[in-house]
Amino acid sequence: MSKKTPLVIVTWLDSVQTNGSWQHLSDFKKQKPVTVGTVGWLIQKDDQVVVLAQSIGWTDEDNAQSAGRKVIPRCCVQKIEKLQEVE
Known about the structure:
With 87 residues, this protein is mainly β.
C-alpha cells in the first residue's frame, strides 16, 4: 500500500456488555475489560485516538479513499504492531 498508511494490528481494551436485566448487587461478579485485536490500515494516530481503515481503494497513491473505519480511544490501546504486507 503506502508508508503513509501502514498495515497494523492494534491490541486494545474494550468494554463488556453484561446481562441487561436487573440484578441484585450481592449477585454481581467482578468484571474486567476484553482484550481485542483489530487489523487495518493506520490512517490516524494522535494523543486521543487511533483510527484504522478496513478497506482502502485508490487509482493512484495521491487519490486514496477509505471505508470501514474503526476509531479506538488512545487510552485503551495497549500496543500497535506493523504487519508485513504480501504482494
